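Appendix B. Raw example, untouched.
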Amino acid sequence: MIAELYRTDAPALLALEARAQSGVSEALLTEALIDDTVYVAGRWQESQLIGYALLARLPFDAELQAIGVLPERRGAGIGGELLGAVLAVAADWQSERVLLEVRESNASARKLYAGAGFQQDGMRRDYYPAAEGAAGRENALLMSRSI
């Protein structure tokens, strides 16, 4: 089941992010749960939070800031379910587009986004710190999709 997360869900969300390693800080997640311009979707299985997505409302667009899924649950379609949920919220907000950025090396996320109709708009060179065990920095791909 996918449902909006609230302040009372903070412990479950922070524990999930600690394992999912999506790169979102504890402070940003905590603030998102109380910010009325941010929608945090949670994917529950029984009483366990197994995935989340973070969508920020902008003046004309929405920005997908993160999708995090438990490592052992990746590849099971949870990211796609969460993406569908936040796209529906962006449509309800009457956003014109949904924007996102993704690590160039994150092939599974890029495939998910392309399959949902996102197209690459640009690149930020050397934007991300290197992934664990890698040297140097990594490019961010900028993607968007009209609603």
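End of appendix B.
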